[in-house]
Design brief:
CATH topology of the largest domain: D-Maltodextrin-Binding Protein, domain 2
Protein name: Bacterial extracellular solute-binding protein
Largest sheet: 10 strands, mixed
Helix content: 40-55%
Structural class: alpha/beta
Keywords: Signal
Strand content: 5-15%
Number of domains: 2
Order of helices and strands: EEHEHEHHHEEEHHEHHHHEHEEHHHEHH
Pfam family, one: SBP_bac_1
Organism: Actinomyces glycerinitolerans
Number of helices: 17
Shape: globular
Radius of gyration: 22 Å
CATH superfamily of the largest domain: Periplasmic binding protein-like II
CATH class of the largest domain: Alpha Beta
Length: 453
Amino acid sequence: MSAKHLPLMNRRRMLGTSAVALVAAATAACSAPGSGGASAEGSAPEAVSTTLPTEPVKIRIMTSTEAADAVTALGEAFTAQHNTVTFEITAEANATLAQNISRILTRNDPPELCFMPALSAAAKDKIVTNMDPYAEAYGWDSWSQPLLAIARMDDSGQRGIGSLYAVGIGYNVTGIFYNKELASELGVTMPPATVDEFDAACAAAVAAGKKAIAMAGKDVGTPYLLQMLQNAYGDSQEINDWIFQKSGATFVQPAMIEAATKIQEWVGNGVIPSDAVSVDYSTSMADFQAGDALFVPNGDWEAQRLASVMGDKVGFFLFPGAQAGADLKAMASPANYVIPATAANKDVTAYFLNWIHTDESARQMVVDAIGCSPGGPTDLPVPTSDVQLVQETTQAFNTVLESGGAVDFIANATPGIGMGVMTPECQALLLGKTTPEEFAQAIQDGYEQELNG
């Protein structure tokens, strides 16, 4: 996940290392070209420029192997428009990158841009650049603020508010992929309008001898489904407060206990397969692709691949609310990139990030090459896709933005909460070795231990 759990971590199939020639043209400047260089202790640049320099500049990007193809494609598109900035793109596996990111950010000559899903520790340690001056210079206040809040932190370490420390390259949304053919065979109408209707569709699948949910109970599947249920039952702000480490926020919420109760109910009635704790992410996706399951909880990072494998047999919907007509909420977050505090060429890097969000061809490429929303100014037209499934996921993302229902992933609350606490506690929940109340308290205890540790 962060490990983004997998939303950010299992992004897409991509190249390892490549070099892309990029170049730039000029726009109006806020100050002299070439400013915004290395700054000490993660402070914001004293002066920034929105004009690209005329002399050659090389920008180095450290990304994940899963994202390298998309970053490369964006670089090629930028090259077609401009021609003075060279991009050297290096990629590492997510696990390796997660282990090495602090060392990469703090070395004497760090890359100008680094993929970093979990950035709270780096922001607190002031080893990444405060992007507030660029947000002001480029007018990023016209972007979705709930999404930018995920990359904000104030001086006290409170997440969700304060200064901006990262910007996404692509913005993900989660929901339910479903097998259209199987839904038709079962006589269930998609999408369900309520949790009860979703429950009924699951029951129909089980009655027909099919898996209702392809469940990756060994790793990320339970947190995904658990949070979808919590979003339906409760207040999204309450869980965001917990994720953003707001004082007094707790995981022990009535909606979370209700969600955990539903998870155990589904294990008991066969909606969640009895062997779910032994099924990992890849296996759950293989089961769904083979037509063995009606649903799989996942995100838009799988849309392009599922469409290529299943064609028009697969659809997508946002997890429904408890009541019909409720505003829909979903985990939706950026693939965040940071500028190291001591990086050179910060102005050029910020220009590139802004271009990805505002240039028509770049926004289209994020949809086509990555399969997710480009983010950026909310008044810009949303790119369309020739792939129906990608079109459905993009529309779902915009529905969440319009309703203000974007929520970060619970596995992003602290660097170690996902694999260290959530995975084993979710497995205990599936196995019936803990009660919903004990489960919620165990997550809270692990969270507090890490924050106080």
